[in-house]
């Protein structure tokens, strides 16, 4: 399969691209700088431009582009960048896909469980209602940008990723650093549900969506969510570090600003569509995820 990937230099892309190539797929990556080799093609999603050859002969597109929601404080300017970096890239790719004489048959577009907002103890599936906070609004517009592809007959899977567990970066990478320093502990009350997914399962799930007829929003989370306090205790045990210190919610808000609401939010998400389609998780719960993290 010839697969075009955007966001290949990001945390997920750095793992997905070599995995796809190892599986025998022909992978081209989109870059915003001058290409450095035959496997790279130039694009500029801010202006809506893309190398005309980028999607020629492509069977599938994976869009992972978007600035990190936790990389900076949510100033008004950065919130606009969080939204535009997702909607512009998606719109640019969808427009280019539709313009092809032979269109790619599938688009796997990144998305997030932020779609559901704060949900307490409610179990969330792909059929659950939208939230009403900033991130839910971002996801709504992000996913809406894929609609022209669906209307054109392209299969679209919107990968609503949960809290990604990886030692290589992201929220969990920072959390692991705290634990290695011996200052890890529950965040806020610790009673909020965390919906995790390990990096290996993230990569496998994205590949599964490329190769199997699943469409619409798809939750990419382990089947068994866990409370924050359970996750942090398991991390402490796996890394042989204390977890007696807790970070109060007010302290998180002081340090992280509005983004702290995402850390303290309770989302009990289950990957119903993946399970129904026969996907099998290697790390189905917090214990197996943490054990993998500790050994990674």
Highlighted features:
296 residues; alpha/beta; Rossmann fold; eight-stranded mixed beta sheet; two-stranded parallel ribbon
Question: How would you describe this protein?
Answer:
The strands form four sheets. The chain has an eight-stranded mixed beta sheet, with helices on both faces. The longest helix has 24 residues, at 76-99. The protein is an alpha/beta fold and 296 residues long. The two termini are 30 Å apart. Helix 2 (76-99) links the parallel strand 5 (60-63) and strand 6. The chain is built from eleven helices and 14 strands. 39% of the residues lie in helices and 19% in strands. The protein has helices at residues 13-22, 76-99, 134-144, 147-151, 170-180, 199-211, 228-239, 249-256, 260-264, 272-276, 286-295, and strands spanning 2-6, 26-31, 40-44, 49-50, 60-63, 106-112, 123-124, 155-161, 163-165, 193-194, 196-198, 216-220, 226-227, 268-269. The protein has a single domain, classed as NAD(P)-binding Rossmann-like Domain (Rossmann fold).
Q: Quick gist of this model?
A:
By secondary structure, the chain is of the alpha/beta class. It is 39% helix and 19% strand. The strands form 4 sheets. Strands 4-3-2-1-5-6-8-12 form an 8-stranded mixed sheet, sandwiched between helices. The protein has a two-stranded parallel ribbon with strand order 7-14. A two-stranded parallel ribbon has the order 9-11.
